Amino acid sequence: MQSLDYRNLIIAVASILIAGCEKPVSYSKDIRPILVANCLQCHDGKGEGSTASGFSVESYDSLIRGTKFGPVVVPGSAISSTLYLIVTDKVDPKIQMPPRHQESLAQGRGKSLHEVQVKNIELWIDQGARNN
Length: 132
What we know:
- The chain is mostly helical.
- It contains 7 helices and no strands.
């Protein structure tokens, strides 16, 4: 019985160590470049996305402020964050971002984010969505 307890303890400690090995994600180095390249065109405070939703990615503060409907980032929980759900296609196709409707595709927009970009957004949010 005692060896089983040690085995469970070792598994628990190993799990914690593995989970803590994810690289820290930086807003300025990792997230902002994704947003500038893929979102800023429409969500610059004046574009069609900003006009429709009130959402701007011009700055960290505007990103955290969210939309006129509320926050899009829940620090510490990507799965609870609209930003993450929208870029992972876990929402209605009409509101997926970047948009992939016919007009966007015709304009050369509408490509999904790369898997690494999505993972960085997820990690950044799960790590507390800090302004770092």
